[in-house]
Amino acid sequence: MKRSIILLFLALAAASAQDAARGKKALEEALAALGGDKFLAMNNRIESGRAYSFFRDRLSGLARAKIYTRYIESPAKGKLAVEERQAFGKDEDTAVLFQGSGDAFELTFRGARPLQQERVALYQDTTLHNVFYILRTRLKEPGMIFESRGSEVVDNMPVEIVDITDSENRTTTVYFHRSTKLPVRQSYYRRDPKTRERDEEVTVFSKYRDVGGGVQWPFAIERTRNGEKVFEMYSESVTINQPLQDTTFTLPVGTPKLKPMS
Q: Average of pLDDT values for 113-119?
């Protein structure tokens, strides 16, 4: 009996090692498909196009959108390695700003209003689970685990499925196209802060294009929550490594500070 238990343990350990090796290989292939070293060297990105928001699967808002993203090579402890400005409207007269310090604001003609903590937490959690952010900044974090779940056909596409788990037990399941090696879907679960129920957050990526020097980026992004559509972004242009000014990610001088929403 003891010998059988040992053999079973060894077999399970071998299978786990094989899953880990297969999962790591899928991520390495995806990174190469996205542009390899050039993808890793991407220091900023500007996505311009149309953004749609949905409530209960029905369109609730649409706008011209321009999203400025800049990576931070040496972030403060516990902070994201990225900052972002989401500008809306033809003249970009409204925006949402997520700063590297962790502060976040909604900008309008009235001034700058701090975002509610719930919305900031959602942005941080979404970023930490994002496969492109993981591939760009988190692969070498201590405690990262990559485990293959094998191959399947999802949405009529042959995919390789990998679970990525960090040291805080956050798991993102990523679906890589078996031919292109590019990520086409990701999913993770998040606890709703009000209901305490688990929400399934799913993002689908498609229409990849070369955005400079061999770096690939999806021009169509769709997000659903518990099967209901919540957001779509269709980019008309995506550029990288532009000469962005620090002022893109700071509040304009003299901007009135508004009180947070209660």
A: 93
Pick left, alpha or beta for residue 207 (phi over 0 → left; psi -120 to 50 → alpha; otherwise beta): left
- Asked if 223 and 231 touch (Cβ cutoff 8 Å), the reply is yes
Q: Are 27 and 139 in contact (CB under 8 A)?
A: yes
pLDDT at 11 over 80: no
Identify each DSSP E strand in 102-178 by its residue range: 104-108, 111-114, 145-154, 157-165, 171-177
Other CB atoms within 10 A of residue 183 CB: 27
DSSP annotation of 178 reads T
pTM greater than 0.85 (yes/no): yes
Place of tokens 């959602």: 122
Tokens of 204: 């689908």
The region that residue 145 occupies, defined by phi over 0 for left and psi between -120 and 50 for alpha, beta otherwise, is beta
Instruction: Taking residues 152-163, report their average pLDDT.
Output: 96
Is residue 208 a contact partner of residue 200, using CB atoms and an 8 Å limit? Answer: no
- 15 — pLDDT class (breaks 50, 70, 90): very low
